Amino acid sequence: MIPSTRHRFLAPWFLALGTWLFAVTPGTSPLVAQTQPPTPARYALAIHGGVGTDPAKWTPEQRDARTRSLTAALRIGQRILAEGGSSLDAVERVIRQLEDDPVFNAGRGAVLNAEGHHELDASIMDGRDRSCGAVTGVTTVRHPISLARLVMTRTRHVLLAGTGAEQFAEKMGVEQVAPDWFTTDHARRGWEEARRQQNQPVPDDRPKGTVGCVALDSHGNLAAGTSTGGLTYKMPGRIGDSPIVGAGTYADNGTCAVSCTGVGEHFIRHVVAHDISARMAYRGDSLADAVRHVVHQTLKPGDGGVIAVDRQGQIVLEFNTPGMSRGAADSSGRFTVDLGR
Ligand code: ASP
Questions:
Q1: Catalytic pick from 53, 136, 184, 210?
Q2: Whose CA is nearest to atom 7 of ligand 1?
Q3: What architecture does CATH give domain 44-340?
Q4: Range(s) for CATH 3.60.20.30 in the chain?
Q5: CB of 241 sitting under 6 A from ligand 1
Q6: Are 221 and 86 in contact (CB under 8 A)?
Q7: Segment 156-198, tens digit of pLDDT
Q8: 210 an active-site residue?
Q9: CA–CA distance, 145 with 120 (Å, rounded to integer)
Q10: How far apart are CA 234 and CA 150, in angstroms?
């Protein structure tokens, strides 16, 4: 077909318009790419190393050891996120690091129950689809957080306890250790003191330290995890909030990721982690308002604290105790580690 005169006249104009549109559409033109550097991917990360006692009463060595440990863990998570890694990987890797550190009441440094044994709890949650996994009462697993992740990804269940969890660990080939791996002077002294005080929760001034991590990755996905040895001198078989999804841990891409620390019974009663997310979803609360309400109005002074991050990368670290070991880092350059008020 021979093009009409009118078509022949318009064709160059359409060609020019197309070229111009291509040039000004972001991501299509090398010219535009040169003048506008790509915005850095946004990520945010928060960690905690527990609440309970007043850091002002600790020795300088205890404060330094904690600060160093939190700083090292925060750097590990920050690197993963800065390199485009997933929030789930950051959460698991950070918690594994803290579980190996005898400074904290998780993994290696887990406190002892009334019979002088350790029973470890952990949970992890993926904000993309609210899949989650948890273990409770495990005694041989070096990294309960990794076992929790395997429950999430390799079973159709959410929470495995005691013997069943140990069998699953064996089947998955996760690292198991002899009980003395978890024996630390710190946990032993706490237990002896509690025994002297006959079943009362330990009112001592030594640092405690459940651990937790929440993260937003550069793909916009949230994740949360928590790991603990529970409460010193707890009844054998007692389960706190840390392995209970919705109480001690929660993550939903639509709202936030939360990890809690404190007297687990109160966090279970008030379903704290989910309540924070629900306040955002149903009431339209900001993360800061939701967390502050739950920590200061729902919970009572001395109950504990919360770390949380929302899908915009806002980080909130709130507690109603004299201190909470904590750290925060994000893609804007924030990097902070604190112990007390
Ligand atoms: N929430 C933990 C529990 O009740 C303990 C803690 O955070 O210190 O097991």
A1: 210
A2: 261
A3: 4-Layer Sandwich (3.60)
A4: 44-340
A5: yes
A6: yes
A7: 999 999 999 999 999 999 999 998 898 888 777 887 887 777 6
A8: yes
A9: 10
A10: 27
